[in-house]
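Bug #2210: token dump truncated for RAB3A interacting protein like 1?
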Amino acid sequence: MDSPEEPARCPARGTCPVFLAMSSGTVCYAPSGLCPALERNLGEEPWGTDSAPQPDQGLPPPLPAVPVPWKSVGPCKGRRESPGALVETSAGEEPQGEEGPAAQLDVSRLRSSSMEIREKGSEFLKEELHRAQKELKLKDEECERLSKVREQLEQELEELTASLFEEAHKMVREANMKQAASEKQLKEARGKVDTTLFAEFQAWRESPTLDKTCPFLERVYREDVGPCLDFTMQELSALVRAAVEDNTLTIEPVASQTPPTVKVAEVECGSANTCALSGLARVCRHRIRLGDSESHYYISPSSRARITAVCNFFTYIRYIQQGLVRQDAEPMFWEVTRLRKEMSLAKLGFFPQEV
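Reproduced locally. Full output below:
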């Protein structure tokens, strides 16, 4: 037997809070402009609001719950809200619906601005990247150039060091050869040196003096100085020797023509054609003066060479005595020997011819 037909029930029956509120009379539903009245579909049976809620029978599953932000309006005071309040609330929400296109326009503008900023930022970053790459390339080229310069400098430094070492070795080798030659000459010279004369000179050099009694000067006086200053005129020769020892003898050249003004105190002994020391007729181009005396004596070139050789020897001896000669004993001895040789040659009549 067929069951009696039952009126169609609300699909939201059961646990729907809206249905419970409307069925209990707590909330009164009033359609508005924003929410038009619900109409049933064609052929749909009216809903029965008097029947108790029934469980879902063959109905599609309920829609999933969508989280909606809730705004607290204050604690509930246990009173019902009037339908007018709901209407006012719906009316207050109407401007928000009207502002929807403007908000969408603002969103579109924001999106376009964001896209422009993003594009500009992308272009700026690309430019910065390109510039950084260019700077990096320039720095790489500079580093490569500096590396080449450093390699070139290192190579030049190595070549310079090698050349300096070669030059230093060459100089050392030449110095060693010169030293060896000098030592060889010294050995040969030592073989030629009279050991007795050298010993006497070393003894005199330790305490230099002009005393004639020392062995060194006594030998030189006897062998060189005495014979070199031994002239025919013995008296004048002794005066010349004393003046040479005291370093008070003066030799002056004779002018070709006698000047018109002559000092009255000057006394000329002899003539310009006779040597006052040897007594020989010779052309005298020099004259001597002894000490502070105003007397002048004409001498020949031979006599002048003998006196000059002795004066040179005494001058060098005085330099050694005063400490003006900074040499070893051997070079000083060879110089003394050379000066003695000059006295011997002048004594024998060997002297440079004067013009």
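Output looks complete on our side. The CA atoms of residues 274 and 281 lie 4 Å apart. Marking as cannot-reproduce; reopen if the truncation happens again.
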